[in-house]
Amino acid sequence: MTLQPDKVVVVGAGVGGLAAAMRLAHAGLEVTLADMHAAPGGKMRTLPSTAGPVDAGPTVLTMRSVFDALFEDVGRSLNQYVTLIRQETLARHFWPDGAQLDLHADPEASAAAMRGFAGPRAEAEFRAFSDRAARLFNAFEAPVMQAPAPTLGALSRHVMAQPSLALSMAPFASLAQLLRRQFSDPRLRQLFGRYATYVGGSPDLSPAILALIWHAEASGVWRVKGGMHRLARAMADVASEHGATLLFGQRATRIEMQDGRAAGVHLADGTRLACNAVVFAGDPRALATGQLGASAAGAAPIAGKAGRSLSANVWSFAARIEGPELAHHNVFFGADPRSEFSPLEAGALPEDPTLYICAEDRGTGSKPPELERFEIIMNAPPLPGGQPKDAFSCRTRTFPILRSFGLCFDPEPPDSALTTPAGFEALCPGSQGSLYGQSPHGLMAAFQRPVARTKIPGLYLAGGGAHPGAGVPMATLSGRHAAEAIRTDLASTSTCRRTAMRGGMSTA
Ligand SMILES: Cc1cc2nc3c(=O)[nH]c(=O)nc-3n(C[C@H](O)[C@H](O)[C@H](O)COP(=O)(O)OP(=O)(O)OC[C@H]3O[C@@H](n4cnc5c(N)ncnc54)[C@H](O)[C@@H]3O)c2cc1C
Question: Which of 42, 399, 445, 489 has the most beta carbons within 10 angstroms of its beta carbon?
Answer without folding.
Answer: 42
